[in-house]
Amino acid sequence: MIRAAGVLALAAAIFASPAVAQEAEGLRGVWQGAVGNQPVYACFGGGDERGVYYFDSSKQLIRLQPIEGEQDGFVEAVGWSDPGDASWQIEALGKNTATGVWRAADSNAPIRLTRLEWSGRDEFAGPCESGAFMQPRLEGGSVTGLASALDGQDFVTLNFAPPAHWQAGGGDEVHDINISTFILPDSESDPRRTNRAINGLLTAAMPRGDMSDTYAQCFAQNIGVHGVDGDFSQQMVPELITQRWVAAFETNGVYCGGAHPSYWQKRRVFDRNSGAEIDPEIWLNDTALERELHDAGVDSYVWATATQALVAALVAQWPQDADGGDDCAGIAAETSRWGIGLQREGLAFIPSLPHVYTACADTVVLPWAEAEPFLSLEGRAVMLSLAE
Predict the structure, then answer these.
(1) Closest CA to 112 of 96, 127, 124
(2) Is the pTM of this model over 0.85?
(3) Is the CATH number 1.10.1660 carried by domain 140-278?
(4) Dist CA 252 CA 25 (whole Å)
(5) Which of 213, 226, 266, 355 is most buried (CB neighbours < 10 A)?
(6) Which residues lie closer than 8 Å to 67 by C-beta, 6 or more apart?
(7) Where along the chain do its domains lie?
C-alpha cells in the first residue's frame, strides 16, 4: 500500500521542471570559492562569457569583463562604471575546479573556485540568474508593521526593509527596493477567515527570501543582461475599506534589464464576503464595454474594450488640476483599455497608455449618478452596497 506522502512525492518527481542542462566544459556556470582568504560566489554566462562575482562578506556585485586578446582574462568593474584596475586571470580550468590570480595595482591573491550545480527558471535563463548564484544575497531583511485605520476600519501597513547589502548599493548605483502593502485584521470577528484569504493576495509580493520573490527574479534578469542589480518598487495602499469591500491602489516601477524602466498603476478590489479578488469589468454592461471572444484553444479568453460612450463620460470627468491638462485628456480619449477600481463616490478608472504617455495616466472617478447607465446588475448591487 502506497501512503499519501509517497504518492505526493512521486507526483512531485513526475511533474517537476527539469533542470537546465549544464555545460561540462568552460567557465560557464556558477562557482564558489575564495579570492585570497575571502569567500566568493561567481558566475559566468553572458553571451560574451562575461562574469559576475561577489564577496560573501559584502554581497556587492562586481562585474568581470573579458580582456580583449587574453584567454580567460577579466577586468573588474562595479555598477555601471567603466572597468577599474583589478583583474582576474584564470590559469587552470578543470571540469569542476578553476584556479587563477587576482591582481590589483599593488597586490595579488590566488583564486580558487569549485563548480556548483545550478538550474534556471526556463531554458533561456543563464547561470547568473540562478538560485545557486543569487540565494545568499536574498537572505535577511525584515518586515515592519504599522497599525492604521481608514474611515474607522483597521488595517496594518507592511514595509519591507531589505538586507544591508541591497540598501548600500554599489559603486555609482544605489539600487531601489521599495516594497509595501497592507493587511486586514485576522480575528474572531472574521469567522469565515476571508480577511486571511485577502491578506494572502495582498502580501504576494512581500519577499520570502528565495528565488520565488518577484524582486529577486527582476534583479536576476538584470544581472543576466547587464551584470548589475535592477530596481523594483511595488507599493499598495488602501483606497476603500468597508464591511463588504477592500479597494487598493497599486503603483509599480521596475527595471529588470529591458530597453527602459517600466511604470504602471493598477487598482484591485476584494470581496470580503468571499475572500476573492474581483474583476470590476463584470460590473459594466454592454453600453460600457465591447466584448470579443478570442479563440485560442485552451487559452481562449474574452477581450473587453471601452465603448466610445464610456470613454466620453470618463474624459468629461478628467481632473481639472491634472498635469498635461487638455493634451492628456485628448490622449485618454483615444484609449480603449482602462483599469477599473472602486471608491465610495463611484468607479475609478486609469487609462492604459504606452510608456511614452505614462505621465498622463491620471485617475478619473465616474460618480455613481453618471456611472449608473453603464452598470450591469452586479454593478448596481455594488452601488447599493455603498449607499449610506
Answers:
(1) 96
(2) no
(3) no
(4) 41
(5) 213
(6) 73, 74, 75, 87
(7) 29-138, 140-278, 280-388
